[in-house]
Write a structure and sequence with these properties.
Blueprint: H1 6-37, H2 41-51, H3 63-70, H4 74-86, E1 90-94, E2 102-106, H5 108-133, H6 139-147
Antiparallel strand pairs: 1-2
Helix pairs in contact: 1-5, 2-5, 3-4, 5-6
């Protein structure tokens, strides 16, 4: 295949459309979460991922797992955790069985904010998809997203 191969061009155009859809959705949700709850999309995602932890074996997430789940580098994830910890929405503590390990939990205030923000997130997602569906370039992607039957997101091990 060459750089001007039609298959590569179609692939690049598909990727551009997918990237455009993602960007529009994320920007719409970002504005809604910021306006209604003073949360960024990344902060909301982090609270959501951490709220799904449970006590017991395998229940707590290592920072690398959290970083993978919110699609950030480990250093960016640490900065994000620190910001939310400073706001009283997260707390860190040492692992009781391995003093080198640090866990991060959502506080009661963080859980309340997440519960309040979830309808805003869901509504903004729906609005962004509805708007994108009116764009002929993005409409097929919206249909695919809407047809997905994805189980609740699991954090990679």
């Amino acid at each position: 295949m060459t750089a001007t191969d039609p298959a590569l061009t179609a692939l690049a155009q598909g990727w551009c459309a997918l990237s455009l859809l993602h960007g529009r959705i994320e920007a719409h949700i970002e504005r809604a979460l910021q306006a209604g709850h003073d949360l960024s999309v990344r902060e909301y995602s982090l609270l959501d991922v951490l709220s799904r932890q449970h006590d017991g074996d395998g229940g707590h997430l290592q920072m690398k797992q959290v970083a993978d789940a919110v699609v950030l580098s480990q250093s960016a994830t640490t900065r994000l955790v620190t910001r939310l910890e400073d706001r009283g929405l997260l707390e860190r503590y040492l692992c009781p069985t391995d003093r080198r390990g640090i866990y991060t939990n959502v506080t009661e205030a963080g859980l309340r904010l997440l519960q309040e923000a979830r309808p805003t997130n869901d509504r903004a997602l729906r609005e962004a998809l509805d708007e994108a569906a009116r764009d002929p370039e993005l409409a097929p992607l919206v249909k695919v997203v809407e047809s997905l039957d994805v189980p609740a997101r699991k954090v990679p091990a």
